[in-house]
Amino acid sequence: xxxxKDKQQAFQAAEQGTMEAKEWYDHLVRDQADYGSQLKxxxxxxxxxxxxxxxxxxxxSETQRLRLEQFRTDLQTIVDEVNEIQ
Length: 86
What we know:
This protein is an all-alpha fold. It has one domain. It has three helices and no strands. It starts with a helix and ends with a helix. The mean pLDDT is 92.
């Protein structure tokens, strides 16, 4: 596979992972009976997204790196906010 496709696919995986984690966070309802289950899934999504970002950073262009750093910041905000709730 050509190098530029690897870069693009890695970036897209990181972007998608971040979006999925954000969606889980947006739908997290603390007072629901399955909050613990939701929280566990959110943590899984966030961890996977961080891993995808780290993988993408290895091959990213400078422009992609800036976006990946923003994804990382967004995920860290989610982690911080969830930790405040608990």
